[in-house]
Fold this protein.
Amino acid sequence: AQSVTQPDIHITVSEGASLELRCNYSYGATPYLFWYVQSPGQGLQLLLKYFSGDTLVQGIKGFEAEFKRSQSSFNLRKPSVHWSDAAEYFCAVGHYYGGATNKLIFGTGTLLAVQP
Amino acid sequence: EPEVTQTPSHQVTQMGQEVILRCVPISNHLYFYWYRQILGQKVEFLVSFYNNEISEKSEIFDDQFSVERPDGSNFTLKIRSTKLEDSAMYFCARGQGENTGELFFGEGSRLTVL
């Protein structure tokens, strides 16, 4: 069965420091992978996605993620965190049915706090 | 401006009451989804809706849940007889025109069942 694991429930970093949020997935085929961000009281905003091709993908707000098939990982990174990045981050794998539906399976999320 | 607008943003209801949550996509798309997030838990898939029919539903989506798109625009989720455990944030999402995989979520409707 498909699943997504985000091992870090809560991470605190200092503003300006680098960030890496971990994500591991279990999926039988080539996965579609996503990172979403949820600010307090807001919906889920797509940060970036991986479908195929270059394994290092760039997203919005200066985020990037690297797909590593050998490690079944899709970790999210940012070289310098800003206070506005404080939010909850969700990794998701897409189960694509080829035109009828696409079900996203989410991880439990990582709550990021940013210290001044 | 959000891709998807959801109403109400917050609803409080008594157990056993019917609730209807609404979703209005800005663009005309065929793929729609409902997800829910119980407080402190992961976002869970409920149902997908394609070309005015349910294409897949999860185990959570039992007989007390229904979806429809009655006027070709609004996409609704109805809970017939709410239970305490239905308290959650409910997210509507739409897919891309060719269903490339990414979903665009609304800001959610928080349902509190007392």
Summary: Chain B touches chain A through 27 residues (CB under 8 Å).
